[in-house]
Amino acid sequence: MPEASSEPAAEPVPATAPEAAAEPVPATAPEAAAEPVPATASEAAGEAVAESVAVPASEVAARAERVAVAPTSLSPSRASDFMQCPLLYRFRVIDRLPEKPSEAATRGTLVHAVLERLFDAPAGERTAPRAKALIPGQWDRLRENRPEVGELFADDPDGARMAGWLAQAERLVERWFTLEDPTRLEPAERELFVEAELESGLRLRGIIDRVDVAPTGEVRIVDYKTGKAPRPEYAEGALFQMKFYALVVWRLKRVIPRRLQLVYLGSGDVLTYDPVLADLERVERKLHALWEAIRQATETGNWRPRPTRLCGWCDHQAHCPEFGGTPPPYPLPVGAPGSDTV
């Protein structure tokens, strides 16, 4: 693909409606050691989760406001959740249990917002000082839109810890300028919501950080990561999300993206991959097998916990049998295994 950093963007990619072989899944916890997570369909239905018992009235009331519904679509993050731990997927998608904001995830959201907004400025004004100057305003906007992130620094009366946290965000933004030159980029899309329905009826959806389109029509999908690049043996797992997006774009436009690019601001690495049709067909088969496993678990109510080193960052240990907890009462109708009641 011609260097997109030196080419203006052409027409944007519109956001209109998209082998079950195991692949490693990118770690969802800060600085987690990426380890491969099996994702076979046979494991997904798994063993029955421990019987639920009474939960505190306050939790019942809180959950009553989060109406449970059967899954209807799949995103890269939720697919990774299920491959990492089916029970985690249930807690997030079906039970919709609340999770505390983390400093790492919130910093990532802030940095993404800054890099998106920087392209509002003319090319010649896209400088590191200007980008850093956007941080305070974007942080204020984030706190306004998501008041819960204010809890992160509730025990920081003098603001010292928040100041250090914001300084870390500044360093990540500065590092981006050593990896890409925004004065030579004109993204076709930023924070692009995409959704496509496969012939099977499976709906895929997600948000792409940036889409670059060369004058020749070649498409590059770019994703910013505020963590560190994975070790080489886990690079395939890190590309899962990008191949997912490439599949959606292919189904929408019948165009295979020329390049997938992961920009790791935490370590200053750029990981690229040029997909071919066989890659996208393989991902589609994998997602179909994954969706079938999710459907079976939804119908039977059997969501198997899968312990890994990532459990240390999970907010739901109190509800997890692996930690002596009890899942909430299953909020959906349960049918016999193999039935189509959902």
From TrEMBL:
Any one biological process term the GO annotation gives: DNA repair
Domain PD-(D/E)XK endonuclease-like: 73-321
Pfam families in the cross-refs: PDDEXK_1 (PF12705)
Stretch list, region Disordered: 1-45
Keywords: ATP-binding, DNA damage, DNA repair, Helicase, Hydrolase, Nucleotide-binding
Domain of life: Bacteria
Alphabetized GO MF terms: helicase activity
Entry annotated with the keyword Lipoprotein: no
Keyword DNA damage on entry: yes
Gene3D superfamilies for the chain: 3.90.320.10
Name the record gives this protein: PD-(D/E)XK nuclease family protein
